[in-house]
Amino acid sequence: MLTQSQLMGLEQNHLMEVEDQLLECRTAVAFRQMQEAASKVGLDLQCASGWCSFDSQLRAFNGKVMGKQPLVDEEGRPLNPANLNDNELLRAILTWSSLPGTSRRHWGSDFNFYDANAIRRDNLKLEPLEYRGRGPNGKLNRWLDEHMTEFGFFRPYTKNLGGVQPEPWHLSFAPVALPALAAFDERALAEHLKQSKLALKSHILERLPELLRRYFYQVTPAPAATLRNR
Fold it and tell me: Which contiguous run of DSSP H or E holds residue 49?
């Protein structure tokens, strides 16, 4: 069971290296097994981005609030944060990015993937078209649809449930992620956010329970098969 500090991205002693990324230890083992199986059919499953810290998520979040990082709407069209009120700005950010302390990637159980045989990581944009049809990750995506549950993985963002947009590139290791979500302590998060340099802090703390319901807890359920033999 992960600690609250690990759940919020404040510690990394539950992780191990996978190439140049970090994953939770059990997740890393299952990833390696799935990677080997994919390689047998000519696919090079790689982790584009694994664990992230609270501080890195904080920088990304604040950068979007301040207009220092790109901000887009649900259709991917650019937005100017100066033209949005606080509620509109929060919605635009949280549609695609996690509130610091709530990223599933803090847990090490979640990561973004790609097929290194079809696209270089530095060319990867993490856009839906890259994972559909003849897109560079389309073949790997279809293979994962058939086989990922055998290794304990599922996609937490398969459709728009009114919060986070679909992320076909995002995989989650159910045996770690499900207990992590259940153990998450909202009060611990609130206390840490109070002490942080989070932009829009007062507004976020005022709306925190609602924001968590919409953008954190609202995910696609893991298939029962992801927990078998794990």
Answer: strand 45-49
β-strand pairing of 153-154 with 170-173 = antiparallel
Q: Which tokens hold the place of 213?
A: 């319901």
Helices (H) and strands (E) in the chain, counts: 8, 6
Distances (CA, A) of 131 to 59, 110, 128, 196: 28, 17, 5, 36
Residue 179: domain span:
4-227
Whole-structure pTM value: 0.95
| Count of structural domains, the chain | 1
For residue 111, the cross-strand partners are 171
Q: In this structure, what CATH number is given to the domain that contains residue 189?
A: 3.30.1380.10
The pLDDT tens digits of the residues spanning 133-159 come to 999 999 999 999 999 999 999 999 999
